[in-house]
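Sample A.
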Amino acid sequence: MSSHQQQQPLLEEEERAYEADNIVHIHDDDDGGHEYSPFSWRKLWLFTGPGFLMSIAFLDPGNLEGDLQSGAIAGYSLLWLLLWATAMGLLVQLLAARLGVVTGRHLAELCRQEYPDWARLLLWIMAELALIGADIQEVIGSAIAINILSRGLLPLWAGVIITALDCFVFLFLENYGVRKLEALFAVLIATMAISFAWMFGETKPDGRELLIGILVPKLNSSTIKQAVGVVGCVIMPHNVFLHSALVQSREVDNRKIGRVREALKYYSIESSIALAISFMINLFVTTVFAKVFYGTEEAKTIGLVNAGQYLEERYGGGLVPILYIWAIGVLAAGQSSTITGTYAGQFIMGGFLNLRMKKWIRALITRSCAIIPTLIVALIFDTSNASLDILNEWLNVLQSVQIPFALIPLLCLVSKEELMGYFKIGTLLQTVSWMVAALVILINGYLLVDFFSSELTGVLFTSIVTAFSAAYVSFIVYLVMRSASFSSLWTRAKTTWGS
């Protein structure tokens, strides 16, 4: 079907995303190897899992903080943007899944093969920085929830340690099969859904305003920062790498077009369902804070740390205090996202560097990269809500900077015919995908310019940021030009061979 299949025997010694005994088998022995089979609920169930693990990145504590600030400051007016941002995120994730299914390799592995050593190392460093930034937010979110649930008995640093240990306990479950681990994530997502739906029911947001917010686009100068945050939080660089690897947990014979088409169909359905659920959870959080805090003085200072207490002051009492409902939801979000962060870290490090080592050793290395700085952050900012909010802004900027270095290689690879063969994306989808990528990069570029224009002070700091910015833009241009040159070379080669 494509040249990657001819190369397959040469890659046997490389570490694969999943070991053979940990792959879910889809087809029965008497399946006959037919190229086409009708829709099957059983097969959808067997393919269900990777999309829900991927959707966790749309529900991590950083996203929840973006949701609550969007609702508190912009009210219901940005719900339409949340919907379309989720749709853009779905498109990117489906492309990542396509890449993994068709090639049998994930994005980090293919970047190692595609780019020269210097570019590969830079892409790896960028991916690791993005992952560390996301991990700090996720672990801090869990630590905040543990602090609330323990009534302040456990400080942030203790919550960080508990979260780090929990992550290894959860990873231990992988030894019992990937389906067991996916079931755990289903429980955590259900916990989030129930918690935030409960809050939605307690606060009773305005249904008419909610519907208008989803259907009628509104944007003004006072909400532009929140709008940028809504879009910027949706596409997480490490999640693109993660999803391209997760889909390899199912047995798909990529030598048969029918089997690949079938896998892409079921993965598209389950990813759409997973992101529809994540959209509803984000919607619950945004509308709760829109109802309670829009137009109030608290809206200017609200964040992940104090949001639960503000809710308790407004809606105290009840069968279960709303403060603890909020904390349980945040804890489920933090715990689930730290586990997927560990997964992504293993795939990123193994893929870019082709390291052959035991999974627990690699997990220890990747978790230490995030836990150690997070522990330092927790010790420094334990008693300062304002400092934590400032830190969160810097972490959002860090992840925004990395987005092009996941999106551009992804679009380059799924457009490459010698790699994707029959499943190379067409001209229309290429155009839409590059437009989405350009939009996301420009939006995050706006965030960066706005952030640094207010933070830049002093000639030395300005000079350093300017130099880094020039190098950053140059690398993006290199990646885009490399993609364009590959496309034109392949087109010319086909023309020559055809003549």
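Sample B, a different protein:
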Amino acid sequence: MITKTNFCQNELLLEPENTSFLSLFCLLCSFVLGEKSFVFWGKTCSYQNSKHEQRDKLQWLQFISLLVQKIFLLCRKPMALVGNTLEMWLNLLSNNGGFLMLPLTILRGRMVWPDRSSATFTSVMGNLDKRLELDKTIRHGNRSYNASLALMAAKLSYENEAFIRIIVKDRWHMEFLGFFNFYNEYHDRPSTPAFVLQDVTSDPNLIVVAFRGTGPFDARGWCTDVDISWHELEGIGKIHRGFMKALGLTKHGWSEEIERGLDKRYAYHTIRKMLRDNFHKNEKAKFILTGHSLGGALAILFVFVLILHEEVWLLMKLEGVYTFGQPRVGDKQFGEFMKTKLKKYNVKYLRYVYCNDMVPKLPYDDDNLFFNHFAPCLHYNSCYEGEIRQAETSHNYFSLSWAIPKYLIALWELIRSFIIPYMKGSDYREGWLMRLFMVIGLVIPGLPAHCLQDYNNSVRSRTLRLRDSQVWAEN
């Protein structure tokens, strides 16, 4: 059992809630790393004795991470207000015939006010890409089927329970197994939504677990993405702290079982139990894990905890992990550990990355200091042409060498939004809201590219170079 006393041998914990901008300034000016009110180093931290250049670099990265998190926390309520207002207006317009019809419905006294829990209420992410139908040109058994289903499940995870239930049952003709908002002990509130479906049309049946990712106006989610805190497990490596907390890490560590009688549901333990129960009823069934953004990080870390607890039976039933725009989850040592284990249990790990997406370039990537992706990526350029790459176009979002190209790509993405229906067909048509986000992308390039619109287009295009398929299989 991994408990609080033996959970990790070392850790770096950044606590933006407990610091001030004055303290951040002191951190920037100081050249001495150590324990502060908002930065805690484990007693055996290897960076305590690192070279002067590494210490300076690390201190600068701490400053950037804490500063950005601090700004997000300060903007948390305004961001939530903007997001909620935008969602309400979008649904108000759709429920009442659009912008031109809304005044008329108000005058007639027939205005329909949106209900957030209804099966017609659509999230901002859903309004950015309104496609809900599965790709009908792909059938079970096709090499692209699981990836296509995983992408649509990851997209659907941003909606409410009633919306998801209707789409899964009535449009996809699959079985809806449950929607959850899992408890985060460190935030003392539910903060990890996910849902589970079963494709009863496939043989064997396929269970899909989809974790929700970072919403456009979710300040805490963005804080998690830019956080560089980690826990180090002996013989395993350093793992992102925030993602593990969202998955169900308790203050007692990764206990194999949660104490019975608790009314709180933790993501890992609840989903594991659901999978066990379903496989006892249907022994031939298999399952896949998927998620976009932070949800992708949770999907691959779910596999890690299964490995940690030696859940061999479940691992043998896992067909694959499909992530879209996933941030980095661990260091190089953790990556080597996971590659060995994934190969041992024959688990596919397909990491989709769209060209200008900023999130796969977070948190900071450095061979000596922090986080690394540990699998080749299925990389799509801005024309949705795919190829296998060992790494993204640019390792880090804040790279100076990538500054000009990412702005040029953002400009091309805006231009492309007007001509893509003529290039690819009407199914690729983009709405005014997506174009508005692309205008924002001219200021913050890579932000609108993180939305699922481009990932949906990439998967549907199916333009992966055939000569790379063997390379992908070998990795």
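Observation for Sample B: The chain is about 40% helix and 15% strand.
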